[in-house]
Design brief:
Number of domains: 2
Strand content: 15-25%
Helix content: 25-40%
Structural class: alpha/beta
Shape: globular
Number of helices: 14
CATH class of the largest domain: Alpha Beta
Oligomer: single chain
CATH superfamily of the largest domain: D-Amino Acid Oxidase, subunit A, domain 2
CATH architecture of the largest domain: 2-Layer Sandwich
Radius of gyration: 21 Å
Distance between the termini: 38 Å
Largest sheet: 8 strands, mixed
Number of strands: 18
Length: 469
């Protein structure tokens, strides 16, 4: 994998966040032989690390071991958009439809509390993750995007969550940030921008201080629950009372879980540090998280060192749910994101601001978009996955829920529907590839039509109904 090259340089190439995390990326030792533990965790990303953190916070004497196929933070945790906010994979309206309004409100408030909880841990552990609570600003870029923003506002009002967000006129948006074509905005103070690489690597170090053991470059090639649970690796195995499956999209590469999630690639481009005179034209002093209402998704942040990060979808789903390093970069999608960023902020092109980084990675999508956070004491297997690109905060909630379930502590969190949710298999290939590509291309087509006509998607098309969440 890394060959004879310096692994610090190799792993730093996977994202700007890993490159600038301020940590030594040399892999920790790999597992050799047999290892005994109380809890063994597959995956040293946010889900696995947060689960270990809260287990050791509740029971400091636990023997916890984490197995990571590359290095801590290699996957989505070290490549995401740095959005720490209450967004959940399933919308509030859909949650109310599926589970009732009371449950929808409970999930919303649990997610809101997650932002505060992450900030607390950063302070306790002395992790400088460039945390900045600038809030979240959803933009309507054109009249065709206003209905989606209005629907969000109506849902919040219907559920009685009137303290979460405020409607902004175009003038009020411009006082915060100057983006082309904006006609309205919805702002919430409940969100923060972070440097995810510094967070995930800092969490790993904090866990080692608390006694956890992390084996890196140690892929799990098989597992078994029951009376003697174990993870099998190429050079050994870990036996534990509890196994935690926390590999998100990468779980789809294990035979028993191959159809429970599909890996969808999200890609990011990043500018060089933007000159002060350009920032004076753009504004964005409070570093709000930004996005529009495109079906194909966009998400932006202003980094601590003054760059603009622009992320979105567009890379194609790969037949058979394949994951490979080569898919992290998709030239047409990365170029589309660069041009979109220039279109949002024309001053960047005018002043010759360049893009210095481009990367991507897979996120895990369940068949019904609903994440799962379960523990079965009979098999000894716990599972948390299915964040659909909303995992920065949701993974922290998952870690707390799994820790409660594993230690037998009933709480408001363990009564949330994610703990009883069962993953539904995706269709077998080639139906899976045909269906996913139909939705991906359909979303792109709907966005193009809406932008050309100024009319919002109806919500009644087959594509929208198939992917409703």
């Amino acid at each position: 994998m890394a060959g004879t090259l310096d692994p610090r340089r190799v792993y730093g190439q996977y994202s700007f966040w890993l490159e600038t995390c301020g940590d030594d990326l040399s892999p920790r030792p790999a597992l050799e032989g047999t290892y005994e533990a109380d809890v063994a965790i597959l995956g040293a990303g946010f889900t696995g690390l947060w689960t270990a953190y809260y287990l050791l916070e509740r029971e400091p004497g636990l023997k916890v071991v984490i197995l990571e196929q590359r290095i801590a933070g290699f996957g989505a945790s070290g490549r995401n958009g740095g959005w720490l906010y209450p967004g959940f994979p399933v919308s509030l309206g859909e949650l109310a439809e599926r589970y009732g309004e009371e449950t929808a409100r409970a999930i919303h408030y649990a997610m809101r509390a997650t932002v505060d909880e992450v900030e607390r841990v950063l302070q306790v552990e002395g992790i400088d993750a460039h945390f900045h609570r600038g809030g979240v600003l959803r933009l309507a870029r054109g009249a065709h995007q206003v209905p989606a923003l209005e629907e969000t506002a109506r849902t919040l009002e219907r559920l009685g969550i009137t303290d979460y967000a405020e409607w902004l006129s175009v003038e009020a948006v411009r006082q915060r940030v100057r983006v082309t074509k904006v006609v309205a905005g919805l702002y919430s103070a409940h969100g923060a921008v972070i440097h995810p690489g510094r967070l995930v690597r800092g969490l790993a170090r904090a866990l080692e201080r608390r006694g956890a053991v992390i084996f890196e470059e140690t892929p799990v090639v098989g597992f078994r629950g029951g009376s003697s649970p174990f993870f099998r690796t190429p050079r050994g195995e870990v036996r534990a009372r509890v196994l935690v499956l926390a590999g998100e999209a990468y779980l789809s590469q294990l035979a028993p879980l191959r159809r429970t999630l599909i890996p969808i690639y999200s890609l990011i481009v990043l500018t060089e540090p933007v000159p002060d005179e350009v920032w004076q034209e753009i504004g964005w002093e409070n570093r709000e998280l930004l996005s529009s209402q495109r079906l194909t998704v966009d998400y932006l942040q202003r980094t601590a060192d003054g760059r603009i990060m622009f992320g979105g979808r567009g890379a194609p789903y790969r037949f058979g749910s394949r994951i490979a390093d080569a898919y992290d970069r998709h030239g047409p999608t990365h170029e589309m994101l660069r041009q979109m960023c220039y279109e949002w902020f024309p001053a960047l092109r005018l002043h010759g601001v360049r893009f210095t980084h481009a990367w991507g990675g897979p996120l895990g999508v369940p068949r019904d978009w609903m994440p799962t956070m379960r523990y079965d004491p009979r098999s000894g297997i716990a599972l948390a996955c299915g964040y659909t690109g909303q995992g920065v905060a949701t993974a922290n909630l998952a870690g707390r829920i799994l820790a409660d379930l594993i230690t037998g502590q009933e709480s408001e969190l363990t009564r949330l529907p994610m703990t009883s949710h069962r993953l539904k298999d995706w269709e077998p290939e080639p139906l899976r590839w045909l269906g996913v590509r139909f939705v991906q291309l359909g979303y792109e087509r709907l966005d193009r039509i809406a932008e050309a006509t100024g009319k919002a998607p109806t919500g009644r098309s087959l594509v929208e109904r198939l992917a409703a969440h």
